[in-house]
Amino acid sequence: MCGICDGGVARRGLMGGALAAGLAAALPALAQPDSEPSPTTPEAALQRLREGNARYAANAPRQRDFSARRAALAAGQSPFAAVLGCADSRVAPELAFDQDPGDLFVVRVAGNFVTREGLGSLEYGARVLGTKVILVLGHSSCGAVDATVAALRQPQALPGHIGELVEALKPGIAPALEQGDAVAANVRYNVLRLLQSGPVLPEMVAAGQLRVAGGVYDLATGQVRFL
Predict the structure, then answer these.
(1) Are strands 224-226 and 81-85 parallel, antiparallel or unpaired?
(2) pTM of structure
(3) CA–CA distance from 32 to each of 47, 65, 66, 69, 73 (Å)?
């Protein structure tokens, strides 16, 4: 083989090696875009939710490869925040706050209200898994809240167990019926319920280990209004 050919092969080999090295360096960053440490304080956890929602509302979520953390998460979880959200199909907390699987411990029920089972789940998230903040997340145009408002204004029989759902929502909505923001009133009521539901959560809040907050998600914009 001539020297010119040998030189061409060598140059191509060098170029190929450089390209491969560049791709190898880039791939880990693409596979694991979220390298920031988990928040260690309630304030930092809430701020991370705020920042994630800002990215989501701006249609600028982080690039992620869900397969990158799947195997690691099979060994355990350490979510930094819990969300008590509505079952509404239009509200997905992981998307709304631009977080990865394993970051949020989510309890969902139509009307985002506290149940015994939900309370136990949130206690588990805080005491065992180490969540730093619990966010009660309502949303605009909530069907469960609207049904409760309608029932308060004009009592009516509802099919199946839907009536039980409405009855559970009434205490938080009835006092604010004429104020016009039943969704926010329901969120605030359930934040208060969590703060008063001992012994686990109130003790952790008093010790500065946990914060309970509320927010309302706007279906049209994707923005969360923190209360």
Answers:
(1) unpaired
(2) 0.83
(3) 21, 7, 9, 8, 13
